[in-house]
Hints:
Belongs to the TatA/E family. This protein is mostly helical and 58 residues long. It is built from one helix and no strands. 90% of the residues lie in helices and 0% in strands.
Amino acid sequence: MGRLGLTEILVIVGIVLLLFGGKKIPELMKGLGSGIKEFKNAAKDDQSAVKKQEEEVK
């Protein structure tokens, strides 16, 4: 298991295009982007909550 080369990436992109079609891919990427954004916000909120608890303990 090593790095992905150009050929492997093109094969993966081709399979994704065949499975989902050209019209569905932007919707999938938009959903993926919003999911990542929500995850980052939740992680940031969790870290700030932990810091507040640590400050209260001190």
